[in-house]
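Q: Fold this one first, please.
A: Sequence and structure below.
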Amino acid sequence: MLKSVSEADIDAGILAARETKDWSLLPLLAGVVGRGSREQTGRAAEALVECAASRAADGVIQAPAFERALSAVLDAATSQGLGPGSGVLTAALLLLTPGARAGAFGRSGEHWLGDASEAHRLALRRAMRTLPGPRGACRAFELIARPELRRAAAERISQADDPDEIHALLRCAHLGRRPIRRTACRSRIDRMASSRLASLDGHGLGRQAARGLPLWLETIGAREPDQVAALEPLLAHPDGVARLASVLLGSGELRLDQSHDPSERVAWSAMLRLSVPEQGRVCCLDAEARQSLGRSPHASVRHLARRLPTRGDASPVSLVSWREALARRPAEVVEHLGPPVSEGDPGAIALVCRLGLSDHMLGRLGELLGGGEPRSASQAARALGLARSPDAAALLASAAEHADPRVRANAIESAAARSRRWGGEPHPGNPDDPHHRPATTSIRADLLAGRTPAGAADRVHAMLSSDDPDRRAAGLWLTERSARELKPIAGHRWADLAARVADAARHAPSPRERQRATRCARRMLAVTTEA
């Protein structure tokens, strides 16, 4: 039939099909693709693609007609599609929808792609790089999973710079959930193209594109600054599902903003991801953020806000989050805690002790011992008692001569604890220290080490008989804690010590001292009974 039709009439029919998208002209186009000249075949194939795209948008495709047209295009692509700029190969790639490749329209596109010769594959890769329009970008995203087309498809995606093409990619971002596509995009799309594909105007995105944006950013492996810049406009997007999708990829600061979302589902999801360490990252709230979240209208958000640690928080609930993060990425936790430890933050130093990170913080703890405030230095001395490194012993020995008595006491106590735990000789301390705290700590360290301090019973008796309430309290602390070790060396002075403690339990001026003396007397009685 086509032989009786002039080329001018065929060209007119192809032009009419492209302008009107009339499905009734599909047999004519299929016939031209199968029997026309090379130029007419290319134009007819392109017109066929436009007709098929129009019918797909309307949701109606007549399977027999489409099957005939697809078969004609694939046959023509096999027989004459190797020439440069051939439109038939472009049409074949655009017509190979997932349904067509799966054989839903008769001939299987997967079978056709798999049986293509190497020459045809080279031509297909050349055509893939120049697929036109949004449909071409989406088809490249679909076919990037095929090894023979992977590089060419990645190059086509990297060239997408038209807003319509990028929005089309966002609308089909769900294809990136397949690991093979995600891996191909991250390995084949260079960093410059990735930054350009992530530079999107979130304010102008439609509903479907906004919902696909977070998954698209994750698929191409966009850098964190690019992710934050692209996702920040979604904080005020009118579509709640889009805001919820952005929570999946938001950073810590962005999720703090998302946790104030008017939708409880969005706010709760953001808080949930803040409360669970992700990739070893621990989110710590400052006091202002905690107070703000504590006033949230959503009860679930207020509950999760109470679980989030503040900087240096060592509470039992926060320790769960810290330990999960430490198990995943210990180096990042150490880096996170380093600056607050250097500042002498008491909570951060307590966390170092609870997490067993003293060996990783030797330098910072040593700096606190040398030039920190007395409170920070005393906590640093306590933390060094948990370190196994020999350098910790040297630091504690120097801290035992510190000007502040609390630092000296903690250093002596930590050195003794470290000696019991890891071995080695502890610092001997100074029982004659003018301040009661390091003096009592030195006596106790000697008793626990099995040494007999000279005149230990007389020193304790003198403390219990002192007029200074702080010194008497130190004597009660030492007697109660070291009763078992003190009794064998006290001899006949044990009764004198017991009498002083009993007198304090009855006649001490303050209720707190009487309670402490009563507790000490009970301990001494228990030790005497055991003997």
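Q: Good. Now the second chain.
A: Here it is, same layout.
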Amino acid sequence: MKNSLLLLMLMISALSGFGQDQQEFSTDLACDVCHSSGDWTKNAGQAFEHLSTGFELLGAHRDIECSRCHTGSNTVERHDFSRVIDECSSCHEDVHRDQWGQDCERCHDSDSWVLPTIFQNHDLTRFPLQGAHQNQSCEGCHMNNPGKKEILPLDCWGCHEKDYVATRNPDHLDSGFPRSCDVCHSQNDWMSRVVDHDKTRFPLRGAHIQVDCESCHSTGYSISTSCESCHQSTYSGTQNPNHQNYGYPEYLCEACHNSTSWEPSIFTHNVISLECASCHGVEYSATSEPPHELMSIPNTCADCHTSNAWVPSEFEHSEQNTGFPLQEAHTEVICQDCHTTWVSASEPRTCYYSSCHLSAFQETNDPDHELYGYPGNYCESCHSQTAWDPAIFSHNLPSIECVTCHLVNYSATAQPPHETVTFSQNCAECHSTATWVPSQFPHDLQTTGFLLEGAHLSTDCQQCHSTWESVSVPRTCADASCHLPDYQATINPDHEAVSFPLDCTECHSSNAWTPATFDHDGLFFPIYSGKHNNEWNECSQCHINSMDYSAFTCFGSECHTMTRMNDKHCEGSSCESCNGLTYQANLVTPDDCYSCHPTGDEDDCKGSSDSFYPPDRWLKPTESNQK
């Protein structure tokens, strides 16, 4: 009965495309894909094309049973193929604990878990296996490494510290050998040492190559590399010359000797690393003319001496070395004439203060240098190094200021008193080199803020500078008290009454007070041209208010009577219009007249009056009438 039921289920699965057993599980595969129609339990899955799943069975994977990967506690779980993951770690334990990642194929393949390419793969790490390292088992180095995320050291010391400490011939630890083992050892064999002395602080050259190691390393391998540590006795025993008496530096053997042999010496003065005083300190200290140590002369001997002989010297008394180059007569003077005490001056000396030419300065009377206050530190401005007389003074010397020699003239001048007015001490601004008087003071805008021109050129200085004081702020014509009386006395128009500006230059020139040049036509109303030219005599004819010149009338002095204007603008009750304004008989104002006749011409309204006077300045008669 059971077999019949199973056969029935197989037939149903073949027809329907999926299988189902007593436990009611289902797959998307037909049963005969994995099972044969004969024996259900034998050769299950042998004919299945596993490549169709995306995971091809290669190598050892072909020989294992399906249940090794498709595991489960029951039939349903074993036939749930989605439970299987195609990553190596799902079936194979990662003994490396994820230290090497999940890319197992780098070292393993599906044929065998242990590969002969392990050493080739190690080349991909930061420590390629070479020499004896290739014979080591992985566990030899990676004993504790798997699973602990420990990174092995890459240097020799990390693995061979015990070998270093245990070595006695020679004792590495006591000798202070470096921990870089590869200086003496290779990766092939620890005991076959190959010492590369070029990698140490003292490469072996010349005779040192043949010397036995113990000759130098008798007390250990951490020794000095200086020559005297081995050759002190040779240095002390050398008599030609006696190195110790001459103070030759024992730490510079290589300056005279090479590593081939102690003799003959190879000394040359061209050794740039060796200072002269290192060998010539005796000569330096013994020299008394001049006493080098007392004067703190630099011990760079080559500045004055040659390698041929200590005497004579070739000291260069230049500007750079001393601040006073020797020229002309100074080249014949012996050193002690200036350096009487052999004490070097802290600063370059001048002719005057050096006590060399002080007497000549004091005794000169033509002119008397002291009386005129000539500077004692400027002898070279007038005198040459050839002789004191004759003098060679030239005003073209740019380095000396005028007041240096002319302070007496500056202080004595009373008109104006230069010191009181605090004039500049740059005399050349007003005076020439020909004579002190007359001066050429530039009374211009840049210097004083007030340019002298016109009648001002012939005005005496004290008319403005009555107290001989300089003016800090440029004065105007009126507030300088020069033209204030003219301003106050003028009554046509009365400047003071109507508060005309104190800047006289707006109407008057510097040539004369009258005639004035007030631009009435350009600024206000044309009275010097047009219909009003020569039709008036006094300003008060129009400006009847002497206190307010902004007020004016057209009807004063019988110029334009109201009756005549009414007759000209009206016929009966009909009056003319202009610019949109209608003449109002007996009520018209001067502002009304000005609005329609801005140039004073009766024909202003026949054309466009815009060209005569801007509309925004017109006064409307209606507004005037309402005032």
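Q: Anything worth noting on the second one?
A: The mean pLDDT is 75.
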